Please model this.
Amino acid sequence: QVQLAESGGGLVQTGGSLTLSCKASGRAFNAYAVGWFRKVTGKEREFVAGTGWNDGQTYYTDSVKGRFTLSRDNAGDTVYLQMNSLKPEDTAVYSCALDSGQLFTNTPEKYLYWGQGTQVTVSS
Model:
């Protein structure tokens, strides 16, 4: 059974940084597409960052480009989201997700496995 567990959320001031971690059990990230999404109450889930397996590229939503960085560890069971220059509009519950395939997609419905989410709050 595949399980994803996020950590690293918290409260930070505008301009601060956080690093989110997502550890997988039951399946490694390095053979499947992986994504980070965020959700604000009352709004649709939003794609933040993602990468396909072995495609050499990482994709970001426009609002986080240049500020957020997705990476994986060498063992392939943990992905990270480094978030710099945080803004109040980045406040959300952030979740990692694992696709059942290898190709990148920013469509949350295509992802099969989800973590429980971690709250990120950016104060102004």
Observations:
- The radius of gyration is 13 Å.
- DSSP finds no helices and eleven strands in the chain.
- The CA atoms of residues 104 and 115 lie 18 Å apart.
- The mean pLDDT is 92.
